[in-house]
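Q: Joint fold for the lines below.
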Amino acid sequence: MLERRVSPSPVLAILSPVIAVALTIIAGFALFAALGKDPVKAMEIYFLSPFADAYNRSELLVKAIPLALIGSGLAICFRAGVFNIGAPGQYTLGAIFAGGVALHAPEGAAMIWLLPLTLAAGFVGGMLWGWIPAFLRVVSGANVILVSLMLTYVAALLLDWLVRGPWTDPQGRGFPKSALFPDGALMPVLLPGTRLHWGLALAVVAALALAWMLSRTRRGFGIRAMGLAPKAAAFAGFSEAKTITYVMLVSGGLAGLAGAVEVTSTIQQLQPDIAAGYGFAAIIVAFLGRLNPIGALIAALALAVTYIGGENAQILLKLPKNAAFVFQGMLLFFLLACDTLIHYRLRLRRVAGG
Amino acid sequence: MEVDRQNIDITVSYSSHAGKRPPSIVPVPHIPKPVHPVSARYGPKARKPDRVFVSMSDVGRFRPPDAKRLTSLRPPRARPPVREAPPVREASSEQIANAAPIAPAAPVAPAVLPVEPVAALRETATVAPLPAMQAQVAGDPIAAPEDTAPLLVLTGLSKAFGAVRAVEDVSLTLSPGEKHALLGENGAGKSTLVKMIYGVLQPDTGTIRLDGHPVRIDSPSAARSRGIGMVFQHFSTFEALSVAENLAVVLPGRSLRDIRRDVRRIGEEYGLGIEPDRRLASLSAGERQRVEIIRCLLQDPRLLIMDEPTSVLTPQEAQALFVVLDRLAEEGCAILYISHRLDDVRALCQSATVMRRGKVVATCNPREETVASLAEMMIGSTVERPRKQASLIGKALLEVDDLRVVSGGGVSLDGITFAARRGEIFGIAGVAGEGQSELFAALSGERPARRPGAIRINGRAVGALDPLRRRRAGMAFAPERRVGHAAIGDMRLSENFRLTHHATGLRRGAVAMLRDAFDVRAEGKDPFAAALSGGNLQKFVIGREILREPSVLIVEQPTWGVDAGAATVIHKALMELAAKGAAIVVISQDLDEIFALCDRVAVLHRGRLSEPQVMSAVTAEKLGLLMGGAAVAEVS
Amino acid sequence: MEAFLVSMIVAATPLLFAATGELVAERSGVLNLGVEGMMLLGAVAAFAVALSTGSSTLGIVAGAAAGAGAAALFALVALGFTANQAATGLALAIFGTGVSGLIGQGYVGNAIDPLAPLLAAESLPDHPALRIILGRDAMVYLALALAIAVWFYLTRTRSGLKLRAIGDDADSAHSVGLKVLPSRFAAVLFGGACAGLAGAYLSLAYTPLWGENMTAGRGWIALALVVFAGWGPIRVIFGAYLFAAASLSQFYGNALGLSIPSQFLAMTPYLATILALVVISAAGARYNAPAMLGLPFRPTR
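A: Joint structure:
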């Protein structure tokens, strides 16, 4: 049975992600053994191969960029008690807006402005998709979880229509893809010889700025207060409507930026599959990072490991692509269970009547 | 209002029907049984007229039992088969015919309850009991325990939560028909004790005996099947379900149709009328309590536990409740009555167990004690109540003019108008759920009014401003709920301090100063708010606002659920603030508090505020009638 | 048109199973977002068992069991450990996607016979509409029967009343002695079993084969459907057929003479759900929306 602690345990608050990761590896080991796959080999590929060489390490960072951008935004959203799970949709809208700008840039325009404009458009697209659930929640009380989730599918269908219809590449021989973006709209590479790009700097700056906002500003205080006790926050003078709108705009905008960064760096065009799955994985990032933007930066790396490991396993072990989700799902399960122990103590005693 | 002798007889006759009472409690005919007087609870003698009559039909909510219905008080299961057969109406007229002395005026009886003058009551209780009282005392189970075997015996009950010993070695004996009070301050362990009797909690050690047999009560449903019913302070009802469905949830094997019929029947018999198909969400607090009581009555209780039942009732409604409880006791049902309202206890109960810090510190007959002596047993020392100094009342600092707020789920405020002046403590009385929280939210700006001029501070219209800007205009607020509204349990005190100070700037060391000045006791330099006891957190919350030196302070239930020591600190601080020239509005359901603090008072009923009354010219009865919805003109 | 109606019935059935189960869980106050994961696990389990035993009945049972097992995992974390229900549900959705992919790897490319119609073709009446309605497999009728049974349970039985009470106010329910956590656990398990049945229907009757991620978002649609139907089981039936029609319109749009791009038709269930949410929330009247939906319950002293 669980028993409430007088005050939350600070040790467990930090240890909980570590324990969860350890449990995930152990459980993964057991699961692969149970399925008759070589567990040692599988664990090695999933968790060690991403660190094996410089290229893998750079790819790790490439994957971590969108995860960190979305995750740090979600961290403040969850901190405010606003459960935005529509990040995949906001990511997709960001990609669409960015693509819209990149694909329609006039030839020979001042190219130096094209990339910032593209990224800004992505940010705005994400903000728009984040604003809708916030607005509906504020005016009618509609559940943010469900509205933001529904919008995810609307966004995916919108993208699908665009790349098959109006924005399809005339030279694409009927494939659902847009034309390639012009060079001026592409993210410059940070490390020559890898795909690592300047999005890394964006992610770090965004996380630092959010961390500062959360801990040092009055708005950040209001966000934390609202997450812990909405009524008390309103009593303290922090408008619930404004806070919800703010965090949804910020987290939506960052998810949109992540989408823009992704389509202007690794994908370089629009297509139906633009890895919007980052949007859900970023939820794990936010929790693993203790709902702290800086923590999300580190957690994004951990989640990136499952992606690179998954890709490597797909090639080397011929495992299905989705197998990486096994680790992500387990990680979140263990993390949530461990987090309960921050506030509660485990007691091996039966309490009747429960 | 005048009343004749016959009406008094009616009062007697229905409380002395020949049901299942032990033979020893047959009352003396034609001598009025002392009805628990409202006057006994509040105010100085001088204010009271010689004789006060309270018309229950004016008050409404708790109708007293219909005098002509002298039916058996048991639900059908307990009735002898003969009575079960005929339809209810016929049965009752038959019984009227059979029943012994009934006043002829019964059918149209205006249901007037005589209320003894306070002086007389104080004497009856402590010095020379009236003849009726003697009869009552003579019939008391506690006075004649050999008559009846005890119903419930608790021996050495203990319960600990972690390191906290909530209940320690408590023993208690209850006989059928006994009305037993459980007294104690907040945190004394009363609730934990009764939850063990009701099966919500299991004792760590000790035994519970029912009818002499040791029993283990695993769950509330087990308790119910053994005839133990409980009415919770925080109602355990379901908003989305109808009255009948609420009852069906705990009544296995009874159809909804039967339950509807039973609700109507019990409503008539006990004066607990309620429409079985109404949704709980649409009921007032008093009505919800009726649902809880009916829920217990439907299960043939042999023991009824009531946890602070009068906190949601007007004094008159409380009277009517006591009449119901008296009848139940006469039928042999034991009542375990938890309250911190000592006047209530003295009016209702003939025995009491006093708890302090989890232990039994005294048992007594509350009628032989004074309020002061009971309070001393509870608290362990005499508590000096601060006396309000007459302060200089100045110009109006807070003016509320025709404030209207439409509320979807709650009570809508309808044309609230009052002013609180410099140096004044203005009380807003009313039972729970009459619009207090809505009024607080409107005054604090959590729910701004449409019209800026609806609220003015020092002449400045602030009605449309949010709490932040109102604080900057010189207001301060302390809501009823401590954790989750006034403060955040998972934040440290320093951050909780910031909640209401960020608008006007923070001072270094202010928290330490506050803890020192208001005696906020807690472990650690900067503990989480959740780690503080109710009283200490409330001192923190009130102190936090007073430290802002507001010109207008709005507090809701400032001493709700806190210990007497903390209440004294808080009352003193409020008086001092008023003396310094602030205007204070105290929204409270506790009439004692209103009388102790306020200069003027107005009563909130269904979202409307009565004309303000000067405190020195108002009586508890009058306030009670206003709380029940009467207009000022009617009661003055 | 005939083909459209048949497809609609077939497409509505998994939605109806999953939404009916989720509805029960939600009426008890638990929001389980993991329907997609439970469906996938049900689908792969049903397919694996049906393929290896040759019995689709055993497959269906295995699907329901797998769904319930996944739900038990959710219940352990979300109810036992009182974790955030939305996050836990998401974990289940992600986990189920992964595990089903891993288990199903060996079954990709295999095919089995689809479920046979409940009534033999010769025993059906001649009327074409009746032939469409009555000529379906047993699962179609089971789904309908289940939704009606849930309606009966919630509105006409004492146990259903208790479940609604728990969803309305768990603390009150606890203090009057209802078993909050066991009831919620049971409701979640039922929801999981239904989601498993939905998955089994997909892999045994709808396609009938196993493919990675074969639910293609139907679990999320089922979640939307529960809200769209205002938590009413009978409305869920209509909603399931409506949503199925909307999602099929991308294949039949041209045939039906619709000139709107299919993606926009496919969006309609989601947009309709948002609209329903706004209307239900704004109306203030609570419909059947469980007041405690998504809020953890921990018995206190």
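Q: Anything notable?
A: The first strand of chain B starts at residue 52 and ends at 55. Chain B has 23 helices and 23 strands.
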